[in-house]
Design goal:
By secondary structure, this protein is an alpha/beta fold. It has two domains: about 150 residues, NusB-like (N-utilizing Substance Protein B Homolog, Chain A, Orthogonal Bundle); about 210 residues, Rossmann fold (3-Layer(aba) Sandwich). The strands form two sheets. Strands 5, 6, 7, 8, 9, 10, 11 and 12 form an eight-stranded mixed sheet that branches. A four-stranded antiparallel sheet has the order 2-3-1-4, with helices on one face. Helix 6 crosses helix 7. The chain is globular and about 70 Å long. It starts with 5 loop residues before the first helix and ends with a strand.
Length: about 450
Amino acid sequence: MNDFNVEDSHQTEEIPGLVARRCAMMAIDDLLIRSLPLDETLDRILSGPDGKTLSDRDRGLARAIAMAATRRLGTIGDALMTRLEKGLPDHSGRLESILVSGVAQLLYLDVPDHAAVDLSVRLVQADPEARRFIKLANGLLRTIARERDAILKNDDPLHRDTPEWLAAKWVRAYGEEVAKKIAMANMQEASVDITIKENAAEWAERLDAVILSTGSLRLKGRTNVVSLPGYTDGHWWVQDAAAALPAILLDPKKHETIADLCAAPGGKTAQLAAAGAIVTAIDRSAKRLERLSENMRRLNFSVESIAIDAMIYSGGPFDAILLDAPCTATGTIRRHPDVLWTKEASDMQKLAALQARLLKKAIGMLKPGGRLVYCTCSLEPEEGERQIADLLQNDDRVKRSPFGKAEMTLLGPELAQAINAQGELRTLPYMLPSEDPRLQGIDGFFAARLVRL
C-alpha cells in the first residue's frame, strides 16, 4: 500500500486537527489490516515524526478517535456497509480506515461535524490510491452525520460491537442480561487506578482521587500520570483495582519467599515487595522484565528478576507463588478495546493449555503447606473456573483454599458479590458502581487460592 503523498500532507499540516486525525487513522489501519495492538501502535505513531509535532490536547484527540473507533467498530462498520451499495471499493488505499475514523468522530466524539467530514476528506485527498473516491467519502460521511440519531437508536454493544463468537460465549457463561452489562461496560473508557505504599487519604487529596473499597485510589480526571506528584519519587504505581486483588488475596508476609510468575510489568511484584516479602520476579520476556526492573528502581524495591520461561525455571521451593498466567485478556477490554478484534476462539484454546502447564509447574515449586494464587485477566471460564476445576480433579498435590468472609470484608461491600460459591474471585467489568459514570467499573479478573499438601 502506498504512503500518503508527502507534498500534499506538508501543504495541509497547518490545518488544525489534521495531523492528530492522520495519527489516529494510521493506528486504526494497523489494527484493521495487521491486527496490531492499539496501545503499542499509538505509542509508536505518537512518538514518531507526526506525533512529536502534536500538543498534548491533539495527542489526546488522536488517542480518543482510535479508541472510539475500536470500541464501536461493529456499529461503525454496519453504518458504512449499509450505505455502500457496492461495498468498499477495491484498491482504495487507506479509504476504509479514514472512513472508520471519520464515522467514529461523527457518532461518538464531541467534535463538529464539519471538522470530522472536511478533515477526513483531506486525508482521502492525500492518499494516492484513495483520492479517486473523494466524492464517495464526502457524500457517505455527510449522510451518516444526517442519520446519526437513527444509527445510535439501534445501539447494541453485545450483538453489534462484540464479535459474534465472543458474545455467544458470554451469554452461555453468564446469561443474556449479564452479558449485556459486560458489553455495555466495555464501551466505557476505564479510569486510572493506582496502588500506593502508604497514607491513602493524604495521596487521595494530593492526586484528586477517590479511595476505593479495595484500597486502590482512582483518579477523578485524566492526565499524564508521570507528571503527577509522587510518581518520580516512587510513592505509587499505576494498577487497575482488579489487578491489585490477587496479590492482596495471596496475603504476603514479611520475609516470605515468593515467586511472581509471568511478572512483567510488575504491579503485583511491587505489592509483594511492599509487604516485605523476598520476591523473585520471573518473566520470559527480557524486554518486559527490564521495564519491571525500572519500575522497581523507581519504587525503591529490591527484587530479584530472572528472564526465563517459567516452564524451565529450576529455583525454589517458595513459601508462596503468584501466577498471573498469559490469557486472552478479555477482562481488560475497557482499556484495551483492540482485544475484541485481535483475539480468536483458537487463541483461548492454546492459552488454556499453556495455563494448565504453568499451574502444574507452579505447584511443583511450592513448599509443603505453601500457597498459590492463580489469576487471569480473562472473562472466559476456560481460563478461570474450569481451569481450577480440572486441576483439582487431576492433581492431588493441592487443595482449594477458598476466599470467604475475611476476603469479602477486605474487598468491601461493592465487591463482596465477586466471591463465587466455590470461594474464587470473579470480577466483571460493570462491578464497582459509582454515581459518577467516569469512575465506575473494574477490569474482569479471576483468581483462586490453592495450598500445597
